[in-house]
């Protein structure tokens, strides 16, 4: 066999190995993100925090929680304290399902960074027989839909969540539906940590919720044209937003 043919075969083998590694990485990230959904379904917040890099962060509801301490402050001190009375696991009468859907994953050229877009459509509620005394512990049932634009890092050979960028897009009470959702159905954070003991380290400007409806930016260009995918903003919506001040 000639040296040229050997070189060609070696090149093909290297390309196949590269493509196989990319596909395995995509599968590992998909498993990681889906496991995240299963864990927060069951309010296993300690295990959720362990999915993040040490310098990870969460961008959520107009706030940024930075580093492992910030991530733990959000999931354990805020969510666990608010939803399950500090219990690391599900409690009777409280529902919080987070299906992980439509994930599009791109492994970056360095092989240790990945970007992904996905969505969740949550069903949540507290049963009338399991109410607590605080207003947020009263019986209710609601829907939530949101978009992820996440960053992942491979650390010591294992993929971890580096930036969980989850943008809730719409909410609705089950009884009245999304046609009747009030503006800022869930109040955005206004105060940062440490003034708010479980608050974010930083606030995000320009956060929005349904019935405001904008495009959550794609991390990748159009696969056919190669152009950035930018949605046009209707002038009527711009004028209405200005009028609200």
TrEMBL record:
Pfam families: SnoaL_4
Annotated SnoaL-like domain residues: 24-162
Protein name from the UniProt record: Nuclear transport factor 2 family protein
Originating species: Novosphingobium cyanobacteriorum
